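Example record

One chain of 226 residues, shown exactly as stored in the release files.
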Amino acid sequence: MCIRDRYQRRVRGFPRAVMECVECLYCGACGLPAEYCEFNGKDQYKNTCTPWLLSNMPRDWLIEQKMVAEGDEEGNVEGMANVTLGDGAAGEDGERAKGPQTTKKGAKLGAGDKVMPGGKVKKKQPVCILVQRLQRNKRKFVTVVIGLEHFGVRLKDAAQAFKKKFSCGSSVVVGENGKPDEIDIQGDFLFDCVDFMVKKFGAGGEVTKENIFVLDNGKRICATEM
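Predicted structure tokens for this chain:
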């Protein structure tokens, strides 16, 4: 018995559908079967594959893949190339309206507020300058200034100005673990540096006593109350 007779006898009991070849349509842009183009990635599928499929694939295939609606005219098929994948329901103007952010209980969040993983709301701290005095040894103090960079002042320039004004050591200390950068002034100038900052950096009206807070003996006091 020849090989051909063995093959015919072996496949004689199989349905005819198994013996027929399946026509596979490939995308001319990426080279994959057209049904797998969406797995190339969102950007490539939208910008590369979708225009080619809309221009070259049969209309029945486009309807089957839900790329066009069955009642759409052929002239509107090209407009599907501009569809953005993953977009939700759009408004009348084509843009999705973004409502105000709220907490789990429905309370509205203010500008800059964040919802923490546990559900607590972290309020945005107002921009200000904080001045405090730290005691390093029994007779040595360090005056720390935090927040000058929020008012357009370079910390290096401010450190040099403090050094020249008070004739002492002054340097910029880079914050670690998320802490802000600060200026360390060698000496006790807790109240003197407030007046100096308003005079030196308050020419534009940004650095004022209303924006400066002094931390003394664990109490936070606004410079206007001193």
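Notes: The helical segments are 3-11, 16-19, 42-56, 59-64, 155-166, 192-201.
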